[in-house]
Amino acid sequence: MIILIFITQYIAYQKYLLNENEQKKEISNRVDLIKEKLQALVMYSYSATKTLAYIVERNGIPADFDAIAIELLDRYKYFDVVELVNGKGVITHVYPLEDNEVIGFNILTSAEASSGALTTIKRKDFFIAGPINLKQGGVAIISRQPIFINETFSGFSAVVTKLSTFFNDLNIDTSSDSNYMYQLSRVNEDTGEEEFFLENDMTSFKSFAVPIEMSFGEWKLYVVPVQDTLNTAFWFGIFGCIISILFSWAVWFFAGQSQRFNTLMHTKLAKQEAQLKLMYDTTSRQIEKSESNLNQAQQIAKLGSWERDIKTNTLSWSREMFRIFEKNPETFEVTRETFLDAVSPENRDMVLKTYTESVKNRTPYQLVYRLDLGDKKNKYVNEQCETFYDKNQNPIKSFGTIQDITERFNNEKELLVYKNDLERLVEIRTEELNDSKEALLNLHGGPKFSICCLRKRKSKSTIGRFNEVCIFSHHVTRVKNAHEFHYWLYRNTFKRISRTLK
């Protein structure tokens, strides 16, 4: 009997350990899956806000903001509202406007919204704020990308994800999930206390909670198992004791039961292994799709990303980086040396020095330089980089982006050449007109009359040149491309020559 009791209690204990290990695996798999989906959601929010910020930085506030917002919402479907905020913190554009009438609201003066906004400005990079009680009602998470024009803060591009959308994106049902409890929280900067935004009571479960923290945000997502695995093992132990006391003579039965239990355990493990494999395959396909969408977004924006592991001195590129550098990802070996070889020799020391000082001073940087790609082909790129450190403040990795700005750089250079040519042509024609006027005055009038008329005409000529320069400055801001500017230059030159001949 004692042996049977020992055996049943041992089996109960093993069942308890088995259930506990299974629950830990399920929790770990659940948390890993949520983390992967969170990472995808963050990357989509980052891509959307970065795209909108790039449009504003390059072309100013778009006149077709609603069309761009509709395209972003249709493409990503991970957020509900698209916003633009000016440099004073005032919301200027919102889509959709229905149920989101917050235009004119200043987020920098709001006690609720200013924390995340100021953190975004301080970081000079993408940041997710919230959960925040929205002015228009409800609770949401707000992803913001700061906009800097000529090194001056000019506002935010932002997307708003309501909590219902947030949990739907993560396939989380906070009301009917019987296996897990979820809670969303953030630390109140004024009180220092943790605030919770869902109705679930975490008091008795917090010691079992698994928090998920995001480096780009100020919030935590708790995942709490609510199943009591002790019950099954406990009742199994009691049942074993009763069976041992009443049926001590049936030792062979328990031996057979143990064998059947092992078979059941192996069957259950095999079933769970198949489920985990299916979950892994599904997650892998979702990750591949997310990577494909990210690569497509980078290709549209001509924006590549790179990551350097400082400890191992290894460098990795995204696909768009290979397109920008015109390298074959199958054959090109990405190293720090091969990267520097592509940088123009006159910019190479500057790039290396800027990166070294950034790592040393723990500050991100932005830099524009030229690439020499061979066959006399050059490109101009805009690089941004930030380095991350461990708890001992030792650098562990650097993450950066490189954007191809060659087209913009060449257009600005061409416009500058046309501007200089026009100014030189105006000076030449002005001198010729003055010489002609002086000769005519000397021919048809006396000296005093000539001098008087000459002074009046020079005054009018000066005013005319001033007006022409004003007209030029106004027109340069309106031309769309170099061909239109070229046409405008020769058309106005022809008009001036015609007026002179008359």
UniProtKB/TrEMBL annotation:
Enzyme class, spelled out: transferase
Matches recorded under SMART domains: CHASE (SM01079)
Catalytic activity reported: ATP + protein L-histidine = ADP + protein N-phospho-L-histidine
Cited Gene3D superfamilies: 2.10.70.100, PAS domain
Membrane spanning stretches: 233-255
UniProt KW Cytoplasm keyword: no
Alphabetic keyword roster: Kinase, Membrane, Phosphoprotein, Transferase, Transmembrane, Transmembrane helix
UniProt EC number: 2.7.13.3
Keyword Kinase: yes
Entry's Gene Ontology molecular function annotations: protein histidine kinase activity
Name of the protein: histidine kinase
Organism the protein comes from: Lacinutrix neustonica
Lineage of the organism: Bacteria, Pseudomonadati, Bacteroidota, Flavobacteriia, Flavobacteriales
